[in-house]
Amino acid sequence: MSMSRGSNGAERLVVIGGDAAGMSAASQARRLKGPDELEIVAFERGHFTSYSACGIPYWVGGDVSDRDELIARTPQEHRARDIDLRLRTEVTEIDVEKGGVRARDVDSGEESWTPYDKLVIATGARPIRPDLPGIDALGVHGVQTLDDGQDLLDTLTSARGRRAVVVGAGYIGVEMAEALINRGFEVTVVNRGREPMSTLDPDMGRLVHRAMEGLGITMVNDAEVTKLHMGEDGRVRAVATADAEYPADVVVLGIGVHPETALAKAAGLPLGEHGGLLTDLAMRVRGHENIWAGGDCVEVLDLVSGRERHIALGTHANKHGQIIGANVGGGYATFPGVVGTAVSKVCDLEIARTGLREKDARRAGLQFETVTIESTSRARYYPSASPMTVKMLAERRTGRLLGVQIVGREGAGKRVDIAAVALTAGMTVEQMTALDLGYAPPFSPVWDPVLVAARKAAAAVRNKTP
After folding, report:
1. Using CA atoms, how far apart are residues 185 and 401, in angstroms rounded to an integer?
2. What is the CATH number of the domain that holds 150?
3. Structural domain containing residue 158
4. Does residue 152 share a domain with residue 199?
5. CB of 384 within 8 A of CB of 410?
6. 101 vs 99: CA distance, rounded Å
7. Is 202 among the domain residues?
8. Would you say residue 312 has pLDDT above 80?
9. pLDDT tier at 347, thresholds 50, 70, 90
10. Which residues form the catalytic set?
11. H-type helices in 246-349, by residue range?
């Protein structure tokens, strides 16, 4: 292959992936360096850039009325900032030795090579599609990109019946189940775990289970999908497990996502045990001076367990992009890691977690105490006070906070941020009991539910200390 760089003497940055991490990196690099110093070429295989994938379930469910509301910055806005953004163009190969990428125009099939001085890999993640008979039938959807969301909406509009099956009950599965209920579908969720929301311990997942059934969702737990049946027209008509069959006019896969790192693997770049790219603190791919990676295609350090994890969240992706852009543009920034904070909801039930679950703590070799408390979102006598369940894990002997899970109504979800800050600071549950949190009857009881759990956890640790 023959590759030559621009004639104006500027370095060239190539970005693979036009969503949160990729375009944040491109935009931040452009703020620091003008086009006479840094040429930026970005490839995106879809139709959209800089959008909120986390908002797709709310668009599908009708809470967000227009797709464009999910787009933070349009392709035209990026191009106006001297970023050469090429939509519907898929990078098919990275040549690390020669410093170039091969890209294919999705519509015409035409291929070309583009050289780079610096490369950002922001290829995201892809929905897990199990290798099952019928998995490629019409009407079976993964939901990761705006294009995926549009395809699903098109199917919902044209579906002959109103029966939907969601496979998996993680964040996407639970949120999509509610979205489909809002669209007037009969919804069955087939989940191989004991309870929905495997990011929670099963005792907390049980609370989510009850809420889903309250919405009219049929929950099928401890069930593994074995086959998808399709009709003569090639459309899905049922989802089968070992001992049952569930009719379906549409199927949504909510099993989770996997880092989209086939390109990186083929190029010989280092991957972790979860299949994500491994980077240093500056988000530079380990062992490669001029290649960075961020977003859903990388693994990040869990600050509580000390292990690498794959967490697909827009918050991390945007931070990664800012850090990469700063470093590419001649500045300096680092990403120290995460504590694993996430929130979601089912109807008016808010679900939140941060830090380690029980099985995470055991896997990390930690001994711990757990406590679970029932409290309310406001002072009990204040109107609209609603119940809230808080579960807390603390390390045995030291009392260090290890994790918190919260399930409740209004005011429950964002309370997890108290715990996220405490985890990041390495606080003990004893120290947490003295936190000076805001109080008034409309906002919390005199003792905030998180602090009630901390008091109980501190007592449990003291009682077990020899």
Report:
1. 42
2. 3.50.50.60
3. 129-255
4. yes
5. yes
6. 7
7. yes
8. yes
9. confident
10. 54
11. 262-266, 314-328
